[in-house]
Each structure stands twice: as C-alpha cells, then as structure tokens.
Amino acid sequence: MEEETQTWADRFSGRVDEIVEPVSTFMQDVVFFSFNLGGADIMPIVLWLVVAGAVFTVYFGFAQVRHVRTSLRLVSGKYDQPGAPGEVTHFQALTSALSGTVGLGNIAGVAIAISIGGPGAVFWMILCGLLGMATKFAECTLGVKYREVHEDGTVSGGPMQYLRKGLAEIGRPKLGMVLAAVTPVMILLFAFFGGNVFQSNQSASILGAEAGGFFDSNAGALAYGIFFAVVVFVVLMGGIRYIGKLTSVVVPAMGIMYVAACSVIILMNFTAVPGAFATIFTEAFNPSGVAGGILGALIVGFQRAAFSNEAGIGSAPIAHAAVKTKRPATEGLVALLEPFFDTVIVCTMTALTIIVVNGPMYQEARETVAEGGAVSGTGTGILLTRDAFETALPWFTGFLVAAVILFAFSTLITWSYYGQKSWHYLFGKSRTSDLIYKLLFCFMIVIGAVMALDQVVGMTDAFLFLAALFNILGLYFLMPVIKRELNKTLEYVRRREAGQSEEEIEAAEAAEGESFGQKAGVSA
C-alpha cells in the first residue's frame, strides 16, 4: 500500500538515497577512522586540522591576535596599492570568501553540534575558530604569492598553484606535483557536496517547514531545487568580478541582519545568557549526555567548526588570490578575519539563541542523544534553529527562511567559483569544459534538495577533511616562506605608518635589493 501512495518525486528521492548511502558510508568509514579513548571515538583526521592551527599560531607569533589592527586597516583600504595586479579589493576578496563560509554551516552546523555534542561543543568550536585564523592566514598568503595573473587580467590561484610552485621552489617538486593533483580533486568534490548539496538540502528543508503544503514534500523540494539551479546557472556566467560585487553587498547585509535577529532573541532572554555561557564552559569539560564525555564534545565541536570556517582545506586562497596587491601577506592578514567572523561571532550567536530559548526540538534532540540514540534526518540542522526562532519570535521565522536561502545562494555561487578553478586545473579551460562543469554543478543542486541530511553531512565532512589532509601537509613545508612574507609586509606597514609613500617604499626596497612586490607569473 505504501508503494501505491508514493509519488514519482518520492521514488526519485528514494533512489538518490539508495545510490548515495553506500558511498557516504564508505567515505565516512575511511576518512573518519577512529580509535576509542576514554569512551570517545577519537578521529585522527580531526586532530590533524586542530594541531595544524596550534602549530601555525605559535610559529607565526600569534598573528591572529597581534596583527588584528593591521588586518582591519587593510580591509578598510588604508594600505591599498595603486596599480597592483588583481581583480578585486581586499574587502571584496574577504566578502567573496566569507560568502562561502558564513552560511548554513553557521546556522545548521551549530544546531547539529550542540544536539550531538551538547552546549560544551560550542566552546570547542570557538577555540577551533581562533586556531583556524592562523591556518587561514598561512594558506591565503601562499595563494597570493604563487598565483598566476593572465594576460586578460584574470587570476588563478589556490593550492593547485602554491603546492606545485612552492614545493618545487624549496626542492620538493615531486611532492608538490602529487599534492597539487590530489587537493583540487577534493576541493571539487567538496564544492559539489559541501558548497552545493548541503546548501540546497537545508534551504529546501526550512522552506518546506515554513511554507508547508506542496513545499513540504519531495515534489516541492525537487521543484525548489530545479528553480534554485536555474537561478544559480544564470549567475555563474558573471565570473569572480560579478560574484565579488554581489557578495560585497549580500553577505554583510545578511550577516548583520542575522546577527541582529539573534541579538533580539538573546536580549529578550538576557537573564538566561550568563547561565548559557556557564553551561557552555562547564559542559565543555564535564559534558552530560554526550558519548565520550569531554573528548566527544571536543571532536564534535572541532568537526562542525572545520565545516563552518573551512580553514586549511585550500578553498579560501582561490578567492583571496584575486585581490589587488603586490604583497602576499597583506591578504593573509585580511583572510585571518574570516574564522573570527564566521565561527567566533556568528556560530556563537546561533548557539546562544538555541540554548537560551531551549525550544522543544532542541530538548528532544538532547534527550535522544542522552539515551544513546542518533540525531539524524531532516529533524536536525536548520530546522532546529528555526524551532528556536519560532519559539521566541513566531512572527520572525519568515526572515530566517529568507536569510537561509540567501546565505545558501551566496555560498553556492562562491563555491561554484572554487570548484570551477579546480575543474580548470584538472580538465583544462574551454567554453565546452566550462559549460559541462556549470551544468553538472547545477544538477547537484537538484539532487541535494531531495537527499537525506545525514548522508549529506557525511559526504561533505569526508571531502572537506581529505582536502585538509593534503593541503596542510604542504603548508607545513612552506611555513618559512610564509614567515618571510609576513615580515616583509609588517616592514611595509611600518614604513607606510612612518609616512612613506608607495613609490618611496618601492624605491627603498629596490635600493636594498629586496623586492617585496609579488612576481606573479604571466600566462596566456
């Protein structure tokens, strides 16, 4: 009888899940190999990302703390360099990259984290975000240093370039070739799943929950996915300049509006805020109802923070490589702001909103985990955040739906650019190749709208951490190069603060036999 009542859309959705589930399970088993320690499943691949952030933090002298003032001045345009090669400003590069990270990972990912890992997972997310600032600085500095500026003014940069060129420069060309070949494959796959399928899936879920009726069905999700795919395809024809202009407006506006909405809810429940912070801190070290205790909360927090800010996977350098600058570390200093805005601010606001409201769906999810059950399916993720908004501001959920869809849209178009650059590196650049990529990318939007959440999350996490595995290995070898670029940029800033002009600084550098400007390769 159940078969007879199924629509063609239900059968399509079921078929997609049947195909994806074994692949997702296999990828998770391989990538998230774990061993038991203190009752918690410890995943070496998650620790790999966290240890890297700690190493970079110490090696670069806590750059994310000491040089924040310089970072903000760079974003404001204070140290802009006239005539510098590139396509976008520091601010546009930052917002383009943020549009790929500030989104559903902050809204849905946080909900997943505190459902499974408890409120204490938020503490570990924040810590991971602070460490990720150093990782983001390192990879984005290299993204600019080894970028390729083409004759038409467009730029190609990212791990494909800096792993190959940078490692060859220090005498490890074979390692560079291998890492440069594998990393773009992982970024491309993550573009299809994390930057695409996850966004489509969660925005379709919240639209269905809010609108109900037709949209709360597989047919409605499929229709939404098709419509979304068409809109994204139209935007993809504009390139990074158009994306930069669009995201420089959409991302700050939506980010401010979302944080403002969370602030309203938090202020309405301000008496619960001290207790919420106390709970976050207490349960970070003594969690209740979390498998594996403190280590379980830590792993969940780090895992979701990694998905949220993407530090270390090599995606952000692709967007930051397009910046107009002659000095690579200037953009590295700008890029380190990303995890702070993304994880420390936006994720914390989402977590506080869910915790202080303590809505029925959150309570149910926590009870399920405490009893040893699994939290999965469409009942978790974005719908849990919506439940908090609906409980506190029932008339405001429409705004959350709009914010989620716009966040998903901006993330999709940014990740389409990341994926396209990886596609070009792997398959070459031509009109036919571009069209195939764009059609495939948009097809995945349709698929994502009808997939099950747990499978989507499993696939996205697997490809994200694989990309980080190879990219961070290369970053370790190139740390001395990054440090030299940082010292050059700090000296440049010191001279600018002393009143020297751009021309005077370049003349002084030339006289000293030190060219701080980037020697970008020019190719057809």
Automatic annotation (TrEMBL):
Biased composition (Acidic residues): 500-512
Keyword Cell membrane on entry: yes
Pfam families reported for this sequence: Na_Ala_symp
Membrane topology of this protein: Multi-pass membrane protein
InterPro entries referenced in this protein's UniProt entry, alphabetically: Na/Ala_symport
Localization: Cell membrane
Region (Disordered) residue spans: 498-524
Main location: membrane
Keywords (A to Z) from UniProt: Cell membrane, Membrane, Symport, Transmembrane, Transmembrane helix, Transport
Highest taxon of source: Bacteria
Transmembrane domains' residue ranges: 42-63, 175-193, 221-243, 255-278, 284-302, 333-357, 393-415, 435-456, 462-482
PANTHER family membership: AGSS FAMILY TRANSPORTER, SODIUM-ALANINE, TRANSCRIPTIONAL REGULATOR, LRP FAMILY
Name of the protein in question: Alanine:cation symporter family protein
Protein's organism: Streptomyces bohaiensis
